[in-house]
Design a protein that fits this description.
The protein is an alpha/beta fold. About 35% of the residues lie in helices and about 30% in strands. The chain contains 3 helices and 6 strands.
């Protein structure tokens, strides 16, 4: 009899503790009512980025990846420049490759790194005020050109472009 009453009391106390924890945990774990992205804007225009390199097509790939990231990770809708609250403009300033490792026989490149560097800015369309601006923003992708695997340069370019798009969109977040 005492054991049943003790178990009921214990389960009641545990239920109470769990209820209090459910109420308090969100306040102590970084949850906030503040929004991740500025809410005063609803739309973003993303014109095709400029490209100052000899690597053609990277500007189109990065623009497409940026539009997809904005649409999937932010509350903003990508629209034409004429109807946008904000505009993202950017320039691909460099694309470079370097060898990370070589084969023992013959010294052929075994693993390569591609680094893409851009400058970008996010502005209010109406006033021209700069919301975010970064110079020398870069991301890296890797590929294996050696005979066994034979990955093309485009594998690393795609990886770097995806990372750049993710990092650019992450930079749009409100400053806490």
């Amino acid at each position: 009899m005492k054991t049943q009453r003790g178990n009921k009391l214990l389960s009641g106390v545990m239920a109470g503790v769990m209820w209090v924890l459910c109420l308090l945990l969100p306040a102590g774990c970084g949850y906030s009512s503040k929004q991740l992205f500025p809410r005063e804007y609803r739309t973003v225009a993303v014109p095709i980025l400029a490209n100052r390199t000899f690597y053609r097509g990277v500007e189109f790939d990065l623009t497409e990846a940026l539009v997809k990231e904005i649409e999937s990770r932010t509350p903003y809708k990508v629209v034409a420049e004429a109807g946008a609250d904000t505009i993202v403009r950017g320039t691909v300033v460099s694309v470079s490759q370097r060898t990370l490792s070589t084969t023992r026989e013959g010294g052929l490149s075994e693993e390569m790194e591609v680094r893409i560097t851009i400058d970008f800015e996010w502005r209010q369309a109406r006033t021209g005020a700069v919301l975010k601006q970064r110079q020398g923003f870069e991301a890296v992708g890797r590929y294996l050109p050696a005979r066994g695997v034979g990955e093309p340069f485009s594998v690393a370019q795609h990886e770097a472009v995806q990372r750049l798009a993710q990092d650019i969109v992450s930079s749009f977040r409100s400053d806490w």
